[in-house]
Hints:
CATH superfamily: MFS general substrate transporter like domains
CATH class: Mainly Alpha
Shape: globular
Distance between the termini: 25 Å
Low-confidence stretches: 1-15
Number of helices: 16
Structural class: mainly alpha
Largest sheet: none
CATH architecture: Up-down Bundle
Amino acid sequence: MHDAQSDQANAGPAPGWLNRTVAGAGITSALGDFCYETTTVILPGFLAVLGVPAAALGLIEGAADALASFTKMVSGYIADKLGHRKALVLVGYALTPIGQVLIALAAGWPLLLIGRLVSWFGKGLRGPLRDAIVIQAVSPQTRGRAFGFHRAADTVGAVVGPLLGVAVLGWAQALHWSDTASPFRLVLWLSVIPGALAVLAFLLLVNDPQQSSNPGLRFFGTLRALPARFKRYLGAVGLFGLGDFSHSLLILAATQLLTPTLGVVRAAQIAGLLYVGRNVVQVLASYPIGALADRMGSLPLLVAGYGLGAATAVLAALAFWTGIDSLLLLAVIFVIAGLYVAVQEALESTVTADMVEPGTLTMSYGALGTVNGTAKFVSSAVVGSVWTLISPTLGFGLAGITMFFGAIALLCVVRTSRA
Length: 419
């Protein structure tokens, strides 16, 4: 057994937390998010013009989340066992633009599903390995700031990409096309460029502080040996995740609420801009949240973030229940969504690093990703199906209740830790 400080010394991090590896990982993530978040904001409108129902969107996004989650577990185990991470991360980033190409070529849901699965397989492959590289490039005392900065940089791409995507969609709409899907396809093709640049950026900028291999590491044995406190934490994360639906459904909700007054294309543009606003909130909030967590602890802030997640779903349910198409209400929903995602993405990884041994850090991130992704698959599939078969009000309402109980379960972990 060895502590995080000794492991950190062996890894030889740069003296400041904002070093080349942290900055390079942030630039890479920004470009990667530019690529696939452009699809996230375009996909609901693209599906609408192709005639694909909400249930299919929920299943596509849920299946992609599930594949990414199981990939995270396997990639984390391989990285901890073999001690090599950078090549796998590069492959993961390369798969995102390949998936974009398949989506751009799609005429129905099957190729859309395949393209999204390819992209999210790449996301699952790279996620825990990249996070472990960032963690080992900084000191334990500055993890919150490093992850807050990384998530903020990550989300810059999620702001710029969809914003340009919506702008290009509006420009392309004025041109003469053979069908209504062509403007969407143009945006998807252009999004391949930043995806390719992400691979190049990671290759040139990020230095992986190589860890020693652990050939004797056993997959199920390592899982069983993870700390009991961490397993309770994963249980709370999973319960919250069962309500944490894909925000593609939130974009679709805004699109449907605004379509009667604005028309489908204009509504899709406004919904895309609302999602951009969500991402702007996430950019602005990520670093302050991380810095605050370094001072007062990550777990209590994460509980508050989970509470905001429940509020997001409940407000979406109320919007459908009352039939309100108010831009102000929709903007409030997306702002709250941006806040809770900022807390979730900045702090779930830092809490994990605080609870486990450095030798199993990457696999622990894989376990976290697997729990999150599996739960989100169920949530997205259930919300999309209930939306289609019964009503969106009930779908979002069930999600809000589940996320609330996830917040309560995490609060119990906090109290147990203090005791």
